[in-house]
Amino acid sequence: MDIADSVIDLIGNTPLVRMPKIAGHLDCDFVVKLELTNPGGSSKDRPALAMINAAEEAGLLQPGGTIVEPTSGNTGVGLAIVANQRGYRCVFVMTDKVAPEKVDLLRAYGAEVVVCPVAVPPEDPQSYYSTAARLVDEIPGAFRPDQYSNQVNPQSHYDTTGPEIWEQTEGRITHFVAGAGTGGTISGVAKYLKEQNPDIKIIAADPEGSVYSGGSGRPYLVEGVGEDFWPTTYHPDLVDEVIAVTDHDSFIMARTVAREEGLLLGGSCGTAIAAGLQVGERLGPDDLMVVLTPDSGRGYLSKVFNDDYLAELGFIESESDTCVSSVVAAKGGNDRDLFYVNPETPVRDAVEMMRASGVSQVPVAKNEPPFALAEIAGSVSELQLMNAAFADESVLDKPVESIMAAPLGTIGIGQSISAAVELFEHNNALLVIDGGRPRTVISHTDVLEFLSPSEEA
To answer: Which of 49, 250, 376, 431 maximizes the CB count within 10 A of its CB?
Structure first.
């Protein structure tokens, strides 16, 4: 009888499928490898099993031990599946940008989850890397697989994913596209494929802003791909090209694939497919491209596939009303240069900057532009600064963060003006979000001037 002994035996041997609606216009053969058919729903089942096996063999993980790992969700699920079979406790550390259903999913497997802020550097004590390291020190018998430096991670894909692709395409593959998070998938597959045929091109699909495509690693919204540091599990010498893909293109592609191909894939799958389509435009009929899609979209229903979420972040437009984009355009000038102050800016300087620029409401933002929404720390207004300075003149020499108020309310650039008017009932100004990033501030006056322009205008 064809019956697996346990769910672990079902890891791997994922299928390839064409995408005629999305890629039918290309001259090349365009196929995707559906890693969502793994029992944990993602490609991370492969390294999870391999890393636990290696730890057991090396004596690093003892019976009744605890597995601690920072994860965006998928590696945690893979580790939890194997851990449940073998009697280990799991504690996973995640960032607050992760969809809430991913936290719930890990808890459904019996894992403990610790959530940390995303808008902090890796060395910050609050970062999910630092938190994981602390927990390993605090928990007796703890073992951290460390998918970012554990070479068993890429080796698992060298041993399984690479050979599967080679056999499934009968050696015809000419291009391989995958996202780079830990770098394990793309590095392991690339090593195997290039050993079979050095001419095979390896393309990394990367979120715009990630270090792999030349960014600083500042927060972006797509999950489970890209990085803000260089993991040792990523082998750049095996990668021929890196293509940066925006959050917007990643999310819209994932939604398009669901509606046109009937495949519910995650946001990082949208990243990989969008990059693959770019490459496919320059390929011919003798080329065969395989795009690895790492997970299912079921872990992103509250984000990628939620219209309200995408509208609030400026990714999609309202179809029922005039949009906030019209108000922004009517303001004129270079509205993409967001006026802001940093948390450490002295209050005196903030007052002068606001006076010189003629603005009365200003966001307080960490770092330098372009900003992620998570980097908006608060706000200041002329009225607030006046009241603070009147009560205590020494405030003028203190940093803005010592007196700043909560962040401004936000509105997506594609949301309706009626939605903005409703928000103005409780906000004096709104921060406009475009493509997931703060773009400009609009006030009651801006909306009023748009709705009833002067005759001179």
So the answer is: 250
The model's pLDDT over 155-204, given as tens digits with 9 standing for 90+, comes to 999 999 999 999 999 999 999 999 999 999 999 999 999 999 999 999 99
d(CA 439, CA 454) in angstroms, rounded, equals 25
Q: Does some domain include residue 1?
A: no
**What is the total residue count of the chain?**
457
Distance between CA atoms of residues 205 and 273, nearest Å: 8
Look-up of token digits 């790992």: 69
Same domain, 18 and 165: yes
How wide is the angle at C-alpha 239 spanned by C-alphas 238 and 245, nearest 5°?
A: 160
Handedness of CA 168, 170, 176, 182 (dihedral sign): positive
Q: Are 314 and 442 in contact (CB under 8 A)?
A: no
pLDDT in tens, 294-303: 999 998 999 9
Query: Is the whole model's pTM more than 0.85, yes or no?
Result: yes
Q: Is 21 a catalytic residue?
A: no
Helix axes 74-86, 100-108, angle to 10 degrees: 10
Domain that holds residue 406: 312-451
Are 262 and 290 in a shared domain? yes
**403-428 tens-digit pLDDT:** 999 999 999 999 999 999 999 999 98
Assess whether 245 and 320 both reside in one domain. no
3-state secondary structure of 313: coil
* CATH number, residue 174: 3.40.50.1100
| 3-state SS, one letter per residue, for 200-232 | CEEEEEEECCCHHHCCCCCCCCCCCCCCCCCCC
